Amino acid sequence: MNIVSRLVSEQWSRHPFVARLRGYMTLSEGDLESLWRLIEIDMTVEKRRDLVIDGYEYRKLCFIEEGFAARYKLLRNGRRQIVNLLLPGDVIGLPSGFLDKARYTVTALTDVKLQGCSINAYVNLCYRQPRFGLALSWLAMHEAITYAEHAINTGRRTPAERIAHFLLEIHSRLAEVGRASESGFDLPFSQEVMSDVLGLSVPHLNRTLAKLRADGHVELNGHHIKFCDIRALELLGHFQPLNLIPIPPASGHKRFS
Amino acid sequence: MNIVSRLVSEQWSRHPFVARLRGYMTLSEGDLESLWRLIEIDMTVEKRRDLVIDGYEYRKLCFIEEGFAARYKLLRNGRRQIVNLLLPGDVIGLPSGFLDKARYTVTALTDVKLQGCSINAYVNLCYRQPRFGLALSWLAMHEAITYAEHAINTGRRTPAERIAHFLLEIHSRLAEVGRASESGFDLPFSQEVMSDVLGLSVPHLNRTLAKLRADGHVELNGHHIKFCDIRALELLGHFQPLNLIPIPPASGHKRFS
DNA sequence: CGAAATTTTGATCACGTTCAACTTCAGTGG
DNA sequence: CCACTGAAGTTGAACGTGATCAAAATTTCG
Fold first, then answer.
1. What is the average per-residue pLDDT within B205-213?
2. Between the CA atoms of A128, A140, B92 and A154, what dihedral angle is there, to the nearest 10 degrees?
3. Which of the listed residues B115, B146, B177 is the one where a domain comes to its end?
4. How far does the CA of A212 sit from the C1' of D7, in Å?
5. Overall number of domains in chain B
6. CB atoms near residue B38 (< 10 Å)
7. Could B151 and A83 be called an inter-chain contact, meaning their C-beta atoms sit closer than 8 Å?
8. If contacts are CB pairs under 8 Å, which of residues 114-173 in chain A contact chain B?
9. Is the pLDDT of residue B107 over 80?
10. pTM of the predicted model, to two decimals?
11. Are residues A127 and A165 in the same domain?
């Protein structure tokens, strides 16, 4: 590895997506290099721009370095359900890249800096180095669990519980990639976004949020949120941290078929 | 392959889980054999028994051959949200097997016949044959999309729309594994189960279901459901079939690192 | 500074929950 | 075979939550 690629790699090794992967597996210099070599996109998308559009083919994987985005479905009656917020370290094109056509639209909520590769390039890497195929499984599993919790949230929790759960989820996901403090974080989007995540109307969200503040659960200054008693919030929102096991290392004889 | 294993394999090749996989990839005799060799569990679990229990470690993958199960979360306030119904061909232990402890409980809604293996055995196969790692990714992706649709359902659809979407989803999933006719299927569980999937109360579910019948959308005899006008239902429920792309085959040079 | 977006508050109303009773049906034992 | 039992389905009435619509207050941004 020459000086240039080493420098590139240094930056890459601090990428929040790499931080995510490190939660599941150890990554050698060579692994980072393999991943980095896939990257053929490196861009910043500005706020309000669509990254993926419902109904169009999308065959890439993009890794968010900085910024927020929302993956959502617009229903025929005009209602919008945000399926997931995308934070630094999250992957765009998952699941859309694996469908004939994207099912959801992804929009930048802030300017978004990202790197990306084609699905085929990534899949080819999986054939050569099965660890990355497992990493993809783990990422997809993570995604599935996030969505499952979301369905529980909108299905059976009261508005206050939903908000509590939502804030804690975002907090823990941001903390994973070093974007949150012990008890607070920045939340750079409007309450309309939050209401479309949680399946509530804006006024009701606002009122319930005000109640959470009045009850001393959270503090809200501008777009910074601070938890007063995180344990109490976790109880209120039935929040449980998500602990994926590490990817088991290869064992036994390797057999190349 | 001797006669016995060929016979075993014949049965295995008709397994609904194998049918699911064939939706993503071609499976050679050898592939089937590889998979089959992992199986170390083959049992029938009777109705009402728990297959996975929230809070306990679970390190298996089990493939449902026959029967229905429900994956759910019981909240502290006594409410239950069913996160997914498990049908023939579905996998138990996904996502629970990848967490330090299961987050959801899985209960048999009918007698359930299943085969299973340990997570480690499956992962080891992935190291030897990366195709199976990708297959796992595809399965997890499928799961994630199902959950995302579920969140949309409970978040922003009216009760009638939710029911329509739910029935169509189950129908299409059953059809994938040959367990449904063109316009109908058996739905062997109570309305309470359905209400806990959809986040509705039992009486309201019942009334809305009655309305769907009155409006000539569906017929309901006992536990058999029949669609009168499936296109109209799809419109009502905003239903879109799920089309995962096939797993791209390996291309270029194979490199064993 | 003006315009637009966002947050906040208020009043009204409908939808869906809750609780309760009643019906229907399947399974069981007398 | 029918009475009994318990589970599931159905219906009704009352209530409350959260939506809707509207407007004011506040913030953000061009």
1. 97
2. 180
3. B146
4. 41
5. 2
6. 18
7. yes
8. 119-120, 123-124, 126-131, 133-134, 136-138, 140-141, 143-145, 147-148, 150-157
9. yes
10. 0.95
11. no
